[in-house]
Design goal:
Blueprint (H helix, E strand, L loop, with lengths): L2 H12 L8 H4 E5 L4 E3 L7 E2 L4 H4 L8 H11 L8 H7 L8 H7 L3 H6 L13 E5 L17 H10 L31 H13 L5 E5 L7 H12 L2 E9 L6 H13 L2 E9 L4 H7 L5 H14 L4 E8 L7 H15 L4 E7 L13 H18 L7 H16 L11 H19 L3 H4 L4 H6 L23 H10 L1
Parallel strand pairs: 1-4, 4-5, 5-6, 6-7, 7-8, 8-9
Antiparallel strand pairs: 1-2, 2-3
Length: 482
């Protein structure tokens, strides 16, 4: 199933260099609430130059950091910030990493043209993912206060999470106030202003925009942008909106209505889930599985959309019911068509202690077997498209082969085990949950873990621990040099 994708990779990417990815040129994720960007959701975001965007709005995307990454890719150097893709490819079984999926959406001639363009030249955006602020009604376990106001409320009300040994756990010290430099609703945010000023021009050339959050349906800036889009139709544009779909009836209807009011070429809705029933409700705090599923069906039946995409964040806990979840999604596919609902697999790497790699080997082996057996049964199922099948295969191989994390500071499993227990012990108390009741298969192992109570307590910080100020930039540069 992956052979066609491998041939495409050799022809269009590796012919330029073994580390080439068109997303570094044509795609951007813009975190306008606090002025950060990355080329896709996998590398950690880095800051946008506030002075530069005053005269050059395209510097929201064409940052000095991205240009340096482009230079490296053109010369065959693999940027350490893209280690997610290199880990997948280094498995050695021809697995397809995300640099293929994130490049394949562009025309082959547009990709080929990049090798002849100076690496430091500004490149017009073709696709963009944008968040206006962090307002969100969920507080998913693998998220943090930098991307969710509900997470921030937890930290403000209950204090910083404590007793951690790994750097990735540091995100749970912060209340996210650093991301509200311009206020909760960002009324005077210069990054938002630059983007809105840029939009009339950008809308005529952009191929796709995907709006994320937080939860966009809760954001004043999102609805303001929808009104701007009504004034500036983009008939050649694909518009996608992320939503957790844990919404009341009125908000779901408002979301459905906007799919019929904005004039674009194609409209997609993205939502998130990766496990079934009580597992999903534990992992994604705020979610009620039946409400979420009903809203998925309501959107498919009533919205003017091309497709609804389920973004799956593959963490350690979702593996216990991932096949049951996939069965449920296949049931929806069977009723409304394989093209109407798509599942997309993204393997979590941050925080490292929630990665699938954290699980004890015997349990990981059993879950690998369960998923492998499910795939053997469904491999020829016409409801599963080529990309979905390739992603399932790479997940199976990833669980079997990869044993070390993506960052040198996160490779000691004893530290990850410690922080796994420390985090979920506090998560249960704060969110009124019960780990052992929800995941009895892990209870014996979980109970055997001990929390080091001698670790000094920390105060709530506003620090950008989820970004390069946390030292990840320096770590990546060191890894590149090595």
């Amino acid at each position: 199933m992956s052979e066609e994708l491998r041939e495409w990779r050799e022809k269009n990417l590796n012919s330029i260099s073994c580390s080439f990815c068109a997303a570094k040129w044509y795609n951007a994720s813009l975190h306008l609430g606090h002025g950060f960007t990355n080329s896709c959701h996998l590398p950690l975001p880095h800051p946008i130059d506030l002075e530069e965007i005053k005269t050059n709005p395209s510097a929201l995307h064409n940052t000095k950091h991205k240009k340096e990454m482009r230079r490296m890719m053109l010369t065959g150097i693999k940027p350490a910030e893209c280690s997610y893709c290199w880990k997948i490819e280094d498995i050695g079984r021809g697995n397809i990493s995300d640099r293929v999926y994130k490049s394949q959406i562009y025309k082959e001639e547009d990709i080929a043209a990049l090798k002849d363009i100076p690496w430091d030249q500004d490149i017009p955006l073709k696709t963009v993912e944008i968040s206006f602020d962090r307002i969100c009604n969920f507080a998913c376990s693998y998220c943090n206060s930098g991307y969710s106001t509900t997470w921030g409320k937890d930290i403000r009300n209950n204090g910083a999470y404590q007793k951690f040994k790994t750097s990735s756990a540091g995100a749970y010290y912060a209340d996210g106030s650093w991301s509200e430099v311009y206020g909760k609703y960002g009324e005077d945010n210069p990054y938002v202003k630059a983007f809105l000023d840029w939009w009339p021009e950008l809308s005529q050339t952009l191929e796709e925009i995907r709006i994320t959050g937080g939860e966009p349906s809760q954001s004043h800036n999102f609805w303001q942008f929808m009104e701007l889009m009504k004034k500036h139709p983009a008939k050649n544009l694909r518009l996608a909106i992320n939503s957790n779909l844990g919404l009341n009836e009125a908000t779901v209807q408002k979301l459905i209505d906007i799919t019929k009011e904005v004039e674009v070429k194609e409209f997609d809705i993205y939502t998130s889930n990766e496990s079934y029933g009580k597992h999903a409700e534990y992992i994604r705090d705020g979610l009620k599985y039946d409400i979420w599923r009903n809203n998925v069906v309501k959107v498919i039946e009533n919205a003017n959309i091309r497709q609804l995409v389920i973004m799956m964040t593959i963490n350690s806990l979702c593996l216990f019911s991932i096949t049951e979840f996939l069965d449920d999604m296949l049931e929806i596919k069977g009723k409304y068509g394989a093209h109407k609902l798509i599942v997309d697999f993204n393997i979590l790497r941050w925080p490292a202690f929630m990665s699938p790699l954290t699980l004890p080997d015997d349990i990981k082996h059993d879950l690998h077997g369960k998923l492998s057996m499910w795939w053997r049964k469904h491999k020829k199922n016409p409801l599963i498209n080529m990309h979905e099948g390739a992603q399932i295969e790479r997940l199976i191989d990833y669980i079997e082969v990869v044993s070390r994390g993506h960052n040198s500071t996160e490779m000691d499993k004893s530290l990850q085990y410690h922080d796994f227990k420390s985090f979920f012990n506090q998560y249960d108390i704060r969110r009124n949950k019960n780990f052992n009741e929800t995941f009895p298969e892990l209870s014996e192992w979980y109970d055997s873990l001990e929390i080091d109570l001698t670790i000094p307590d920390v105060r709530v910080t506003d620090g950008r621990i989820t970004h390069y100020e946390a030292g990840e930039y320096e770590s990546d540069i060191k890894n590149n040099n090595e």
